[in-house]
Specification:
Helix content: 40-55%
Shape: elongated
Order of helices and strands: HEEEEEHH
Oligomer: single chain
Strand content: 5-15%
Structural class: alpha+beta
Largest sheet: 3 strands, antiparallel
């Protein structure tokens, strides 16, 4: 099971152990805005059924845990080590492809501009006698 599958299961409220087996299921919560953003949490009530379908709001009791700048930098460095960086030859090849594409498109746009401006000027030129 890869990280993406684990994240998806976690979003669905399921906990997964190191072997990829589902360990526990959390109660489903939704944000007040309906999406997966920041906001107050809303818990749906499954028991009783006498709430006319209204949702009960949970109190935001737990404070947001912040990381220190040094911890943040350590995590950034560890994530950057995981990146698959291109080789020098790949960077040179990609740069050449981009440069050639920009030059070709610039020439094409310049020729189209010249053709349209010439045709418009010819169209509005006064008739010669």
């Amino acid at each position: 099971m890869n990280r993406e599958q684990r994240r998806m299961l976690k979003k669905q409220g399921q906990e997964v152990d190191a072997d990829g087996q589902v360990v526990a299921t959390k109660s489903r919560t939704k944000t007040a805005s309906g999406g997966s953003g920041s906001g107050s949490r809303v818990t749906t009530s499954d028991a009783g059924g006498g709430d006319d379908g209204k949702r009960k709001r949970q109190a935001a009791a737990e404070p947001v845990e912040r990381t220190s700048p040094m911890q943040f930098m350590r995590e950034v460095r560890s994530e950057l080590r995981k990146v698959s960086w291109p080789t020098r030859a790949e960077v040179i090849n990609y740069s050449i492809v981009v440069l050639v594409t920009v030059i070709v498109l610039t020439i094409m746009i310049g020729l189209l501009d010249w053709a349209f401006s010439s045709s418009i000027l010819e169209l509005f030129r006064p008739p010669s006698s």
